[in-house]
Write a structure and sequence with these properties.
24% of the residues lie in helices and 26% in strands. It is of the alpha+beta class. The longest helix is centred in the last third of the chain and has 17 residues, at 228-244. The chain is globular. It starts with 10 loop residues before the first strand and ends with a helix.
C-alpha cells in the first residue's frame, strides 16, 4: 500500500467551539481493487458491537452523488438535533473519483469525500447514519463501517436496497421488521418505516448494536420512508450534484 493523501494524518476539527474531531489514519487510498478487498477483511475485525450512547443529542445523515460522467463525487452531511430533528449544521464536499466502480468496494470511491465533508463539521455528531451498508456486506465492511473506523464514532448503515443475505418480508405495518441473514449469521434488519412502503436495510456500522440501531432509525422516520437525517442529506447532495456537471 503506497502513497499518501489528505486523509493520511490524524486531523482535528471544531477547535473554535471547543470540540475535537479526530479522523484516524487507517490506510492509504492508493489501492488496487484486489488490495482493497483484502483490506476490507482486515478492517472488519476492528468493528465494535456495543450499545449506542445513552444520551443522543445530535445525529448526522450522510449521502453521496456522482456527476453525470462519473468523474466527480459530492458528499453532504446533515446534522440534526435529536429527538426534535431540527437542522443544526450542513457540511458538503466534492472531489475527483479516484477508485474504479467495483461492486462491494464502493466505500473506496465514496469514503474519501465523506471524510472531507466530516472535516468541515463544527458540531461532532453523536451518531452517523450513512446511506449504505454497515456489516451487511459480503466482507462485513460497507460504507458505514468503513467510515465508523475512520471517525471512531457510532455509525449505522441505512440502505435502500439489499447487498447480501436473505430475509422474510416484514409485515406491512410501520415498525415491522425481520432479520437479514447471511451464512447463518445475522448481519442486519429489514425495517418497514412506513406502512406498505418498501423496507430499509439497517445494519451496524461501528460501535452500535442492531436492535438499538433499528429503533433509532425508526425514531428518525417521520412522514417519509427515509430517516430525516439521510433524507435531508440526499436532498442537499442532489442539488450539489448539478454543480458537478
Amino acid at each position: 500500500m503506497k502513497g499518501t493523501d489528505t486523509i493520511g494524518r490524524k486531523t482535528f476539527f471544531g477547535e473554535a467551539l471547543g470540540n475535537w474531531m479526530e479522523i484516524k489514519h487507517l490506510h492509504s487510498w492508493h489501492l488496487s481493487p484486489k488490495e482493497a478487498a483484502v483490506l476490507q477483511k482486515e478492517l472488519a475485525g476492528q468493528i465494535e458491537i456495543c450499545p449506542l450512547p445513552s444520551q443522543i443529542q445530535t445525529i448526522a445523515g450522510l449521502d453521496c452523488a456522482f456527476s453525470r460522467d462519473g468523474r466527480r463525487i459530492a458528499a453532504v452531511i446533515a446534522v440534526l438535533s435529536f429527538p426534535t430533528l431540527e437542522v443544526v449544521e450542513i457540511a458538503e464536499a466534492s472531489d475527483k473519483v479516484r477508485f474504479p466502480y467495483v461492486p462491494g468496494l464502493l466505500s473506496f470511491r465514496e469514503a474519501p469525500v465523506c471524510l472531507k465533508a466530516a472535516g468541515k463539521l463544527r458540531q461532532i455528531p453523536d451518531v452517523f447514519l450513512a446511506d449504505g451498508q454497515g456489516i451487511a456486506h459480503p466482507r462485513r465492511l460497507g460504507l458505514a463501517s468503513h467510515l465508523g473506523l475512520f471517525l471512531n464514532r457510532p455509525t449505522i448503515g441505512c440502505a435502500k436496497s439489499r447487498l447480501c443475505g436473505v430475509f422474510e418480508e416484514p409485515a406491512a405495518a410501520k415498525g415491522s421488521r425481520s432479520l437479514l441473514w447471511e451464512n447463518g449469521e445475522v448481519v442486519g434488519m429489514v425495517l418497514r418505516t412506513r406502512c406498505q412502503v418498501r423496507p430499509l436495510f439497517v445494519s451496524v456500522g461501528h460501535r452500535a448494536v442492531l436492535e438499538e440501531a433499528a429503533e433509532l432509525v425508526l425514531q428518525c422516520c417521520r412522514r417519509y420512508r427515509l430517516p430525516e437525517p439521510t433524507r435531508l442529506a440526499h436532498q442537499k447532495v442532489s442539488i450539489l450534484k448539478t454543480a458537478l456537471g
